[in-house]
Amino acid sequence: MGAHSSAARGLWLMLSLHVVADNLFLRTPFAISGYVFEFMPAIVVTLTDGVHTGRGEASGVYYFGDDAARMMAQVQSVRAEVEAGYSRSALQTLLPAGGARNALDCAMWELEASRAGVPVWQLAGLSAVRPLVTTMTAGADTPESMARTAAAFTAARAIKLKLTGDVVLDAARVAAVRQAYPTVWLGVDANQGYDLARLRAVMPHFLRHEVALVEQPLPRGQEHLLEGFASPIRLAADESLQGLADLESLRGRFDVVNIKLDKCGGLTEALAIAGRARALGLAVMVGNMAGSSWAMAPAFIVGQFCDVVDLDGPLVLRQDRDPAVRYVDGEIHCGDAVWGSKPAAVS
Question: Smaller CB count within 10 Å for the chain: N or C?
Fold first, then answer.
């Protein structure tokens, strides 16, 4: 027994890092303001000590050129430090926020959970996890097509619409979907598509159709224009929130902050953002970059602390991981077997 335990401890010291590109293809092209996606350029990082394993998936931040090649290169640049056993806290200074750090950070969380014999959510300070109501997202298209897409979400309790900044067309899109779904929670995401004049012009249409949330109406860098804008609907910062350092500047401009692990660089900073946002009086949302269940699972932990949850990424993919998160009655369910609780091997 003693010899086996010593050998196991020795294996823990021999940490090995593996990283692969793994593009995630979408069922159909997905349009937002300024972009049309056919796949997400993901990477998967695996850390193993020979007994325990941790995995992390990232899709990067497309509008910063955070593609698979860049993420792979960043991961490789810190291989020596990671394999030497650098901690998650050290990782925060080794790499900037983005997909590479996200994949490594999440792999470290799962490795740590496996070594401890507990699920990641317990390491994150939770006593249990619960299913979460999640938005189902309709990509920007004609009003009729978006209404058909929304109507296909038969169990949806919350729907988010991608808009493009065209006031007349966006108003028609919202009206068509609201007609298809008279009572569902409805949010819209402009992905930086408006200027302040067009935002003012479209707001009455949003109010008429009971839109509950307007996400990232103005381009990143123009947040100051929202000072003094008395929005009748809650405004959420997405592209305007990249990491913890951005939070202070968002008070008085936004009501909600949308945390995405690819933006902030992993579960470690995502949890810190959620806690600090609460302290600043901001509501909290968790989103995704259309990843698989391996990306949804750590975000699901963040979602336990959130007011709004947008974790429908696997629904737009041709193929998900197995085992996968489940969507039941408008909720996302994430069992420990998906990610974050890998038991130690028994010999």
Answer: N
Whether residue 140 sits in one domain with residue 44:
no
**Domain assignment of residue 87, yes or no:** yes
What is the total count of domains within the chain?
2
Rg of the chain's alpha carbons, rounded to an integer? 20
Q: Which own/partner contact pairs does 205-211 have at CB distance under 8 Å and 24+ positions apart? A: 205/167, 205/170, 205/171, 205/174, 205/175, 206/174, 206/233, 207/232, 207/233, 208/175, 209/174, 209/175, 209/178, 210/178, 210/186, 211/174, 211/186, 211/187
pTM > 0.85: yes
CATH of the domain at 33: 3.30.390.10
* 341 located within any domain: no
With respect to residue 269, please indicate whether it lies within any of the assigned structural domains.
Answer: yes
What is the residue range of 239's domain?
132-333
